[in-house]
């Protein structure tokens, strides 16, 4: 529509916009309610109203976002089935409540465990109009092309509108010397992004679901990118993967761990490219046509490499969320490859998002979900390691000797994983002192202690904790640091009476000197050597030595140590010397090969003359 100032200030123009808005609200009433919920959450955050805490706000945001996607998809489904309003409300809200149940029942969910149904709802928008109905690729492609175009233009319009309003506010404040509240800028972008942009998108959702093959076209710029950029790059990368396979065969080596992520990304980009080129795959371009017909055949070998690579990683280190996602990608690729090879000419484009949506739902529920399967797998691995190393006897952890460093690292890594995924309670039957474990676990659950590395639980088992990144031999690295076990952001306090100088040490590294200006043009220099001796000296020749060996001696040399802040005196040392005396309070010490690299803390100095 060709807009001019005359149209902009005319009543029919605004009446038409109002009519479009009311029609959109009438078509998607539950979607509008979801948007209003999202806006209310945004206003609460911007204006610091304190109505919702973080946990409630996060879950309500997921509810609003899920409602936007689900009610949009279910509306399209109901429209094509020509349901009456009563039928729609009997179908859509009850299923949405099941989606909300998943959001509110998981205590500490992984990303896909909560987002799986949300993603599935979003994907459903692309195929809901033809679910259980006849469809053709032209209609599916052009409908989704219009949706993508609507998303793109709504985003561009929102940036222009909200950015323009923000510039106007800045100009008014600058020219008229007015203080514009920062919340007003937040409100502008909130309304634009969570209301105006979605409303525009919804108004552009086609009411017609079937289109002719001739409707399938896109701008020349997109045609150029697909023809001369994406497809050639996909083919080149495919050649690289085949060459790598030949290298594996000739050298007899297993694929590297990063290969699985590379193939997964390539497969996803390739599938999107395959979908995008549908309108031009049979219009005379030989490369485009060949790519469209053979892409899924070419994916067979990369799928084999992907399966081999991720299988190797899982067998070595067990299942995690990242490896679960890669394995899910491999399964999705396999389903699409088999479907394409079987149907070929009858392959339905809508099957691509449909199969992914089903996979997201499967990965969100049950013992095979992304939340449960990795936990169960890691727990089984930990049990097997403990039994193999004679550490789990008669159902209890009994340590008569420390296992090898690599075994300690594996045990520490798995325990850390279980603690961070709220599965520490699964370890309780193995602990002899179960009351101590209960005290620690309640602390973890109720007050969110900082023991996310599981060190305290391994201390109960009698096994030394080793950081996952900690290496043996000459690269051994560890830390000794103060931690707040109650997670209430408390700070250690110390008495400064009797001292003349307070020196905060934010960083003191091995071999370097830090200078601090004092009164009367004097200065204090601090120097740390790798053996743990701190030299404090002034320009007047006064000198004070702090020997940290006694402080370090009680702590393990094979792992990092977390000291509760109530025991801060364990990291303090007093010294006296020529013309000076002082006390050093340490907050963190980093060591490599048992030699100090750097430290932080506080220093109190008494001048004796």
Give the end-to-end Cα distance, rounded to a whole number of Å. Answer: 87 Å
Task: Return the average pLDDT rounded to an integer.
Answer: 85
Largest sheet: 6 strands, mixed
- Broad shape: globular
- The overall strand count is 12
Supply the number of helical segments. 19
Taking pLDDT < 50 over at least 5 consecutive residues as the criterion, the unreliable ranges are 444-451, 470-475
How much strand content do the residues show? Answer: 5-15%
In terms of structural class, how would the helical and strand content be classed? Answer: alpha+beta
Number of structural units classed as domains: 4
Radius of gyration: 32 Å
Assign a percent range to the helix content.
55-70%
What oligomeric state best describes the polypeptide chains here?
single chain
